[in-house]
Write a structure and sequence with these properties.
It contains nine helices and ten strands. The strands form two sheets. A six-stranded mixed β-sheet has the order 6-7-8-3-9-10, sandwiched between helices. The protein has helices at 43-51, 73-82, 98-103, 112-117, 122-134, 150-162, 180-197, 208-214, 237-268, and strands at 5-14, 17-27, 32-36, 58-63, 66-67, 83-86, 168-171, 200-205, 217-222, 225-230. It has 269 residues and is α/β, with parallel strands linked by helices. The protein has a single domain (5-268), classed as Rossmann fold. Helix 5 (122-134) packs across helix 6 (150-162) and helix 6 packs parallel to helix 7 (180-197). It comes from Marinibacterium profundimaris. This is Phosphonate ABC transporter ATP-binding protein. InterPro entries: AAA+_ATPase (IPR003593), ABC_transporter-like_ATP-bd (IPR003439), ABC_transporter-like_CS (IPR017871), ABC_transpr_PhnC (IPR012693), MetN_ABC_transporter-like (IPR050086), P-loop_NTPase (IPR027417). Residues 5-248 form the ABC transporter domain. GO terms for molecular function: ABC-type phosphonate transporter activity; ATP binding; ATP hydrolysis activity.
């Protein structure tokens, strides 16, 4: 029996602004879902609502029959462990080595004193090294996280999320600041975890090409609302023009060109 993530009329307002406006989605276990839209469309707010980093103004989020929006205390901490969040800015501790940063993902399973002392078992260290191996980062295990490239740091963040043994991974613009080569490695890593572990992945993306290449389902947002929900094959340029207009399609294509240009500049620097 598969476990689904259900959003029912989820809304979040900030003053007069409806950042997320009546979103209802049913996401089956094991799907790789890309959420696209212009800046300010509500993509990041939506992920934070799912993870309960912010609270909905209206509506509900449920997973496997459990009402997420009512969880408190330990139950809420467990949900954030089961629903791992990967941020655009990595959220690593620069002064700590890579292995310790990954092990921090295990702290939700520790008691208060153990967590404060950063005590980890041999089993947890093995788990962390296996996660780093999956992302080709074992040689950097004892290197300070702050000395890594952006692409390497994002892969460390994915390894940190993986050792939480999550049921869902949420990735908020994980490749927005990366050159094309590193962006590909990050997306390949997420895709492999989705395929091999059956972990549901929701990823916010700013480019159509990436969404089409990796996602088996794409949700397009505008002004907080879902304007499209379908397969990558169904998201044609014509559909994008219908949803966002010619200007919107040009913006997405410009984002692809801009990312490629940043990558060329880093290579030649």
């Amino acid at each position: 029996m598969t476990t689904s993530l259900r959003l029912d009329n989820v809304t979040r307002t900030f003053g007069e602004t409806r950042a997320v406006d009546g979103v209802s989605l049913d996401i089956r276990q094991g799907q790789f879902v890309g959420i696209i839209g212009r800046s300010g469309a509500g993509k990041s707010t939506l992920l934070r609502l799912i993870n309960r980093l912010i609270e909905p103004t209206e509506g509900s989020v449920a997973f496997g029959g459990t009402e997420i929006t009512t969880l408190k205390g330990r139950a809420l901490r467990n949900w954030r462990r089961d629903c791992a969040m990967i941020f655009q800015q990595f959220n690593l501790v620069d002064r700590l080595d890579v292995l310790t940063n990954v092990l921090i993902g295990r702290l939700a399973d520790h008691g208060f004193l153990s967590a404060m002392a950063m005590r980890f078992t041999d089993e947890e260290r093995t788990m962390a090294l296996m996660a780093l191996d999956r992302l080709d980062l074992v040689p950097q295990a004892l290197q300070r996280a702050g000395t890594l490239s952006g692409g390497q740091q994002q892969r460390v963040a994915i390894a940190k999320a993986l050792v939480q043994r999550p049921k869902i991974m949420l990735a908020d613009e994980p490749i927005a600041s990366l050159d094309p080569a590193n962006a590909t490695r990050v997306m390949d890593g997420l895709a492999a975890i989705n395929r091999d572990e059956g972990i549901t992945v929701l990823v916010n993306l700013h480019t159509l090409d990436t969404a089409r290449a990796y996602c088996d389902r794409i949700v397009a947002m505008r002004a907080g609302r879902v304007m499209f929900d379908g397969s990558a094959a169904q998201l044609t340029d014509g559909v994008v023009r219908d949803i966002y207009g010619t200007e919107g399609l040009a913006e997405f294509n410009e984002a692809v060109t801009s990312t490629a240009a940043r990558g060329r500049a880093r290579v030649t620097a």
